[in-house]
UniProtKB/TrEMBL annotation:
The lineage of its organism: Eukaryota, Viridiplantae, Streptophyta, Embryophyta, Tracheophyta. This is (+)-abscisic acid 8'-hydroxylase. It holds the Pfam family p450. The keyword Oxidoreductase applies. Keywords: Heme, Iron, Membrane, Metal-binding, Monooxygenase, Oxidoreductase, Signal, Transmembrane, Transmembrane helix. Residues 1-18 form the signal peptide. Its main location: membrane. Its cofactor is heme. Its EC number is 1.14.14.137.
Length: 475
């Protein structure tokens, strides 16, 4: 009931906004705006959202209009259109998020901004996650992966996605703070998890609701972060992690970032890093589980490294993580198949003309990454999981798991590193069995295998390892 009321209010405000701003001239793209107020939101949620977009594309082509979540929107399903919005004419389209979500993450986080402020923050995040910095993280990420896997092993069933979330959170903390005091880490974890639970709930400040709890946890996070920031300021160490980069940053006039700016961006990066990477890791384990021959080939590749590293007694090296060609292709194909960020939102800041159509000011624009990744014109037999397709580089702008242009993901190399390290340890030391026969996708809001992929993990015996090593002889 509350949900319906909320949808109605959002729809009404958008409707009033559009009525007021209806003075554009030009032809709108084909498509349907559905019912007054609610548009096509019910159609979108009564089926798999990916099918909704795919059916629309079949019917109307690569650019079409619809009206969802209270907003008139233009969907773009071609690589050129995605490039137009995200790269070539990015200044004509601003990032757009519901205010309720912006408030939970923090309005000063980089992804809500454009222009100078965004560029400054982006350089800092990118710098702290540069390849040169990432190589230092290999042993720590390895330790996080090994300890997670050890805790999963045994006869109990684990929820793979939930466990992967814990892992990607730890890696996020590492990238932001380097080594953080256990007590502070626990405080951040506890409060962030409350924020996470309320993030997709109905935004009301009524006491006891998940949104209100998230809002309060957000306030506590701010306080904890301020304590960490002040501790770091006292130490005056030139750390290279994200917090260090933000503390040392000065603009042309010598201006430093405020504690609020730093805190909002820390929460923003944790948010951007956690569910995305956890979802990708969960899909990788699902695809490997469902393709046993491929799993053997990946195991063979990783087993060679395992043997070289004295049966896992010495650390993976950065160079080894850069030379795992089969595993890398499995990761790329998993990102294509799962298309974790199926689409993104922007808002036209002025009336924009594209291919003879008008995109009116204030309308949402959504480049549909998943439709592009699943278009047989660019990826032959797109429903088939086939990492070998990445032996040839995809055509330009057809593969965008990490987005494109000014807001493209600055964490993509860290995410890939995390996945390579995790795959190395899981295939060389464990076997896993997915529980239950149900298959399907769940959205939370990122796509994950149904029920988070419940699975049992067992340590491999020496005998099993010998058999795997044999496979390496013929690959
Ligand atoms: C498999 C894992 C990941 C995927 C699929 C992913 C995907 C994306 C995509 C598609 C965007 C662009 C969104 C848009 O254009 O609206 C993005 C932005 C972003 N990502 Fe990631 N991401 C992943 C992991 C990470 C990690 C590990 C971090 C940080 C440690 C991170 C930090 C960010 C940030 C800060 C932005 C906003 C950039 C900006 O606005 O300039 N992401 N991500």
């Amino acid at each position: 009931m509350l949900m319906h009321a909320f949808l109605f209010l959002v729809a009404l405000s958008c409707y009033i906004f559009i009525k007021r701003n209806r003075n554009f001239t030009g032809k709108l793209p084909p498509g349907s705006l559905g019912w007054p107020y609610i548009g096509e939101t019910l159609q979108l949620y009564s089926q798999d959202p990916n099918l909704f977009f795919l059916n629309k594309q079949k019917r109307y082509g690569e650019i079409f209009k619809t009206h969802i979540l209270g907003c008139p929107s233009i969907m773009l399903a071609s690589p050129e259109a995605a490039r137009f919005v995200l790269v070539n004419q990015a200044h004509l389209f601003k990032p757009t998020y519901p205010k309720s979500k912006e408030n939970l993450i923090g309005p000063l986080a980089l992804f809500f901004h454009q222009g100078e402020y965004h560029t400054r923050l982006r350089k800092l995040v990118q710098g702290s996650l540069s390849l040169d910095n990432l190589r230092r993280f290999v042993p720590d990420i390895e330790a996080i992966a090994v300890s997670a896997l050890e805790s999963w092993a045994g006869s109990h069933v684990i929820n793979t996605f939930r466990e992967m979330k814990k892992l990607s959170f730890e890696v996020g903390i590492l990238a932001i703070f380097g080594h953080l005091e256990v007590n502070k880490k626990e405080q951040l974890k506890e409060n962030y998890s409350i924020l996470d639970k309320g993030y997709n709930s109905f935004p009301t400040k009524l006491p006891g609701t998940p949104y209100k709890k998230a809002f309060l946890a957000r306030k506590r996070l701010q306080e904890i972060l301020k304590e960490i920031i002040s501790g770091r300021k006292e130490k005056r160490l030139p750390e290279k992690d994200l917090l260090g980069c933000m503390l040392n940053s000065k603009d042309e006039k010598g201006g430093i970032l405020s504690d609020d700016q730093i805190a909002d961006n820390i929460i923003g990066v944790l948010f951007a890093a956690q569910d995305t990477t956890a979802s990708a890791l969960t899909w990788i384990l699902k695809y490997l589980h469902d393709h046993p021959k491929l799993l053997e080939i990946v195991k063979a590749e990783q087993q060679v490294i395992y043997e070289l590293n004295d049966k896992g007694n010495s650390h993976l090296t950065w160079a080894q993580t850069r030379n795992m060609p089969v595993t890398y292709k499995v990761i790329m194909e998993s990102l294509r198949m799962a298309s974790i960020i199926s689409f993104t939102f922007r808002e036209a800041v002025t009336d924009v003309k594209y291919k003879g159509y008008i995109i009116p000011k204030g309308w949402k624009v959504m480049p549909l990454f998943r439709n592009i990744h699943h278009n047989p014109e660019f990826f032959h037999n797109p429903q088939q999981f086939d990492p070998s397709r990445f032996e040839v580089a995809p055509k330009p702008n057809t593969f965008m798991p990490f987005g494109s242009g000014v807001h493209a993901c600055p964490g993509n190399e860290l995410a890939k590193l995390e996945m390579l390290i995790m795959v190395h340890h899981v295939v060389t030391r464990y076997r896993w069995k997915v529980e239950g026969s149900e298959s399907g996708i769940q959205y939370g809001p990122f796509p994950i295998p149904i029920h988070g992929l419940p699975a049992r993990f067992q340590k491999q015996s020496t005998q099993e390892k010998r058999i795997t090593c044999g496979a390496s002889c013929y690959t």
